[in-house]
């Protein structure tokens, strides 16, 4: 299947959707603290998206029951929010979702700390952000998805302070736009020069997940939550981007703080 390319009107629409997603993430992230439940965080995501005229696209996608995936500690992704899951000091909290506005989807994720972060949790969250930034830095027409994956992997999988990190290989990003998922599949590992060649106008969701230790996972009986087998903690960072004439535009950049 051909990878879609988009023009100025689509870029403008994705900016609006991305801004709404970033606002919803900022609102939920500001509420992360010990004692808060993951269901309460999910409600903030949904309320913010709907208040901005959008829809929580994650809710109902393939039967997922909530507006956001909220994954704590060794839950790598697709964690189901629950009123019974109350955060405790030091928890590592991934909040991931897609917002839909005027028919366009924007996906975003960031890893937050409940209260005082643990040293390893802080290091893991920082490395996920660094790996995403390294990948986004190589995006431009003529680059390949292998270039993107290689940049992420190189930034992620360097041992720091005696801790080894790994990129989850069985989960990846994807194309995005008017549909939640489109071509291409985006690996967060790879070899330079391999894979699809990027062209101006392509939209991508880039969302690496890093784990401490081995990148072996399993799915819990709820059918959604993916956890590390060794219970090593995981961190994720995601942005939705569009390939421009000379690089990439990040649609889901953090909203500016008012003066």
Describe the overall structure.
This protein is 26% helix and 25% strand. By secondary structure, the chain is an alpha+beta fold. It has one domain: Creatinase/methionine aminopeptidase superfamily (Creatine Amidinohydrolase, Alpha-Beta Complex). The strands form four sheets. The chain has a five-stranded antiparallel sheet, sandwiched between helices. The longest helix is centred in the first third of the chain and has 23 residues. The mean pLDDT is 95.
Question: What's the CATH topology name?
Answer: Creatine Amidinohydrolase
Main β sheet profile? 5 strands, antiparallel
Average residue-wise pLDDT? 95
Total number of helices: 4
Helix content: 25-40%
Portion in strands: 25-35%
**CATH class descriptor:** Alpha Beta
- The residue ranges in which pLDDT falls below 50 over 5 or more consecutive positions are none
Radius of gyration: 17 Å
Q: Order of strands side by side in the largest beta sheet? A: 8-7-9-14-15
Please provide the ordered H/E string of secondary-structure elements.
Answer: HHEEEEEHHEEEEEEEEEE
Shape: globular
């Amino acid at each position: 299947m051909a990878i879609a390319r988009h023009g100025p009107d689509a870029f403008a629409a994705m900016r609006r959707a991305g801004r709404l997603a970033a606002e919803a993430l900022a609102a939920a992230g500001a509420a992360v603290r010990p004692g808060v439940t993951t269901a309460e965080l999910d409600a903030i995501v949904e309320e913010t998206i709907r208040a901005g005229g959008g829809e929580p696209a994650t809710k109902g996608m393939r039967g997922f029951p909530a507006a956001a995936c909220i994954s704590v500690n060794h839950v790598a992704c697709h964690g189901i929010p629950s009123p019974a899951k109350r955060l405790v000091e030091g928890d590592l909290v991934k909040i991931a979702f897609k917002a839909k506005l005027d028919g366009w989807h924007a996906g975003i994720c960031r890893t937050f700390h409940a209260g005082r972060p643990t040293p390893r949790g802080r290091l893991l969250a920082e490395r996920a952000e660094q790996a995403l930034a390294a990948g986004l830095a190589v995006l431009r027409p003529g680059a390949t998805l292998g270039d993107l994956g290689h940049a992420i992997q190189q930034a992620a999988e360097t041992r720091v302070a005696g801790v080894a990190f790994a990129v989850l290989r069985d989960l990846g990003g994807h194309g995005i736009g008017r549909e939640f998922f489109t071509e291409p599949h985006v690996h967060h590992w790879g070899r330079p020069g391999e894979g699809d060649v990027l062209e101006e106008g392509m939209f991508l969701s880039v969302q690496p997940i890093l784990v401490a230790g081995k990148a072996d996972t399993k799915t819990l009986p709820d059918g959604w939550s993916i956890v590390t087998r060794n219970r090593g903690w995981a961190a994720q960072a995601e942005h939705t981007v569009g390939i421009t004439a000379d690089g990439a535009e990040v649609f889901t950049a953090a909203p500016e703080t008012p003066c």
